[in-house]
Amino acid sequence: MLVLLAFIIIFHITSAALLFVATIDNAWWVGEEFFADIWRVCINNTNCTEINDTFTGYSMLQAVQATMILSTILCCVAFLIFVLQLFRLKQGERFVLTSIIQLMSCLCVMIAAAIYTDRREDLHKENPNFYRLISDGTYGYSFILAWVAFAFTFVSGLMYLILRKRK
């Protein structure tokens, strides 16, 4: 049982780390001379432009930013609640609250990545100064990590739903 508990804790911490990296790092859309994320666009590694309200499509990026931050916070809260429930729940009870919060984190990450996937091309077309420079890019590792974090948080949420506290 101790090995299972250690695996669940490591799996949850890995999920949180993936969410932190996907939210913070600047590699959602990359190319040879640029990289862009939900916070800024950098050309030639020196010319970085913060994405603000003058950027066309800013509301879409704000939605992605908000849901990624919310998913990271929910994942951390779920871990804290898991630790509290580990010592407070009676034997045989399930970690339902932890599961619900972790599945909400999963939903937030899915929403953020789906919005970015759907609206990325429109965002670049609406900003012609950047579009000609960054149109020939690919999805970066932060974007891929967001989808991997979605899978990890989903599996983690299901594990908590099934898991019972045993001796």
Automatic annotation (TrEMBL):
Pfam families: PMP22_Claudin
Annotated signal peptide: 1-16
Top-level lineage group: Eukaryota
GO cellular component: apical plasma membrane; cell surface; cytoplasm; cytoplasmic vesicle; Golgi membrane; membrane raft; nucleus; perinuclear region of cytoplasm
Keyword Transmembrane assigned: yes
UniProt-annotated location(s): Apical cell membrane; Cytoplasm, Perinuclear region; Golgi apparatus membrane; Membrane raft
Regions that span the bilayer: 63-83, 95-116, 139-163
Gene3D superfamilies per the UniProt record, alphabetical: 1.20.140.150
Keywords on record: Cell membrane, Cytoplasm, Golgi apparatus, Membrane, Nucleus, Signal, Transmembrane, Transmembrane helix
A molecular function (GO) term: integrin binding
Ion transport among keywords: no
Membrane topology: Multi-pass membrane protein
Coarse class of the protein's main subcellular location: membrane
One of the protein's GO biological processes: positive regulation of cell-matrix adhesion
Stored InterPro entries: EMP-2, PMP-22/EMP/MP20-like, PMP22/EMP/MP20/Claudin, PMP22_EMP_MP20
Function of the molecule: Functions as a key regulator of cell membrane composition by regulating proteins surface expression. Also, plays a role in regulation of processes including cell migration, cell proliferation, cell contraction and cell adhesion.
Similarity-based family: Belongs to the PMP-22/EMP/MP20 family.
Subunit field text: Interacts with PTK2; regulates PTK2 activation and localization. Interacts with ITGB3; regulates the levels of the heterodimer ITGA5-ITGB3 integrin surface expression. Interacts with P2RX7 (via C-terminus). Interacts with ITGB1; the interaction may be direct or indirect and ITGB1 has a heterodimer form.
Entry-linked PANTHER family: EPITHELIAL MEMBRANE PROTEIN 2, EPITHELIAL MEMBRANE PROTEIN-RELATED
UniProt name for this protein: Epithelial membrane protein 2
Organism of this sequence: Equus caballus
Gene label: EMP2
